[in-house]
Amino acid sequence: MSEITLRAAKHADSPTSFAFARWFSEPPVTAIIVNPLPPDTPARKFYQRLGFVPTPRQVFHKGDDCFVHRLTRADWLARNQGD
User: N or C: which end of the chain has fewer CB within 10 A?
Assistant: First the structure.
């Protein structure tokens, strides 16, 4: 495992934190995208607390209306400096 993964694993306060560290330890991964449905307010709030930024509302090819959220590597690193 990379240094970033080990550091996050040592200080991880949740499985989500560890998963993000693991994904971002891979150089090709520059962002994590999630797409909770509009009625799922608790999910949207959860992702926003983790640093995900809402993007414009999107409707996908099968008519799925979603609030896409994005967490970039740079934003994640900024939130986790010093861990």
Answer: N
- What dotted CATH number matches 3-79? 3.40.630.30
CA distance 16 to 14: 5
What are the pLDDT tens digits along the chain (83 aa)?
Answer: 445 444 444 444 577 888 888 899 899 999 999 988 888 888 888 889 889 999 988 777 777 788 899 999 999 988 887 65
Torsion of CA 9, 29, 79, 5, to 10 degrees: 20
Tokens in use for 74?
């740079």
Tokens 């400096």 belong to which residue? 81
Q: Where are the beta strands (DSSP E) in the chain?
A: 31-34, 53-54, 58-59, 65-66, 69-72
CB 20 within 8 A of CB 8: yes
**Which amino acid would we find at residue 72?**
T
